[in-house]
User: Fold this.
Amino acid sequence: MVRWKALDAEEGNVMAKTLHKFDYRDIGIAGLELFVTTTPFMPAVVSDGEIDWQIEALKADLDAVGAKMKRALQQRNARPRSTFED
Assistant:
């Protein structure tokens, strides 16, 4: 069973400041999975500065989701596991 994790500003103020282009989901016994939430991935750009800004914003997005995934994995590993997980 796949459990979708919504991006939540309450879980960390840094998430409220990101583009929300990435998220993760718990896919049961196989672990956590990172995925892209929107397409197109980046809006059209017309200057070097816009490209640089978009890349930095996407890096911040990935860093924020990575931090959330690490917390989720710690919580997941801390709870007792059943032999027969859904």
Summary: The longest strand covers residues 22-26. Residues 1-16 have pLDDT under 50 and may be disordered.
